[in-house]
Amino acid sequence: MTFKMIGRCTHVVDCREASGMGKGGSLAQRGTFAECGTDVCAVAMSPGRRHITKPVCEITFGLREANVLTSTMVLNAGAGVPHDAPASGGTLFGLTDKEVDQMRNFKLLVIHLGGVANHIIYKARLILRNVNKHCIIICESPVDCEDFAKIGVKTSKVMPSEDNIKTKGIIDDIVTGVIRGETISQEKLDEIIRKVKLALGDA
Q1: Using an 8 Å Cβ cutoff, are 121 and 147 in contact?
Q2: Contacts of 58 (CB under 8 A, 6+ apart)
Q3: 51 to 56, 77, 122: CA distances (angstroms)
Q4: Torsional sign, CA 127, 128, 130, 132
């Protein structure tokens, strides 16, 4: 007997190491790794009072509906800022060896960061310092490639000077105006899908 799928593409998702949290949406908690192919990994910060993973869930579903195999990772220590960021203190942002190894398995990273420009650029630098991959940054603040290049992050549009390159990975594109904890607009979701497909060479 043969089966034919009409109008839908089925994705098998090897889901959470830990159960979900939150009301209604069963939002992913820190340490979540939901695997669905090796094309794209959507990386989310740790959930908390200021960081809500809701947009990442919606982005992941949107990409899968557009037939882009997308896995999801919620970092264990995704809150705060890296130790080498100016005015760092309080909660420290960091990566585990396991998270770095997992991210290295994907063609493209889609990294959802926060609403504070200074935090965004230094978090991205730490991730791309450890992971030699192409990525798309999704955030709330209106940052651009020049903001990242100034602190040594390689981007497709602006490169740091040769003696100031501090990352292995590179930012292909940026999507701004995606608000933490808010439902993402269809316009922004379409922009993300378009830029992801372009980065994968599938536009």
Answers
A1: yes
A2: 183, 184, 189
A3: 11, 12, 17
A4: positive
- The answer for residues whose C-beta is within 8 angstroms of residue 28's C-beta and 6 or more apart is 16, 20, 21, 34, 44, 47, 53, 56, 57, 72, 74
What confidence score (pLDDT) does residue 51 get? 54
In whole angstroms, how far apart are CA 39 and each of 17, 23, 42, 70? Answer: 20, 30, 10, 6
Say which amino acid occupies 62: G
Q: Contact 135/111 with Cβ under 8 angstroms?
A: yes
CA distance 120 to 143: 9
Say how far apart CA 171 and CA 66 lie, in whole Å.
22
**Positions of the chain with pLDDT lower than 70, given as ranges:** 1-31, 47-53, 88-90, 203
Question: Global pTM?
Answer: 0.84
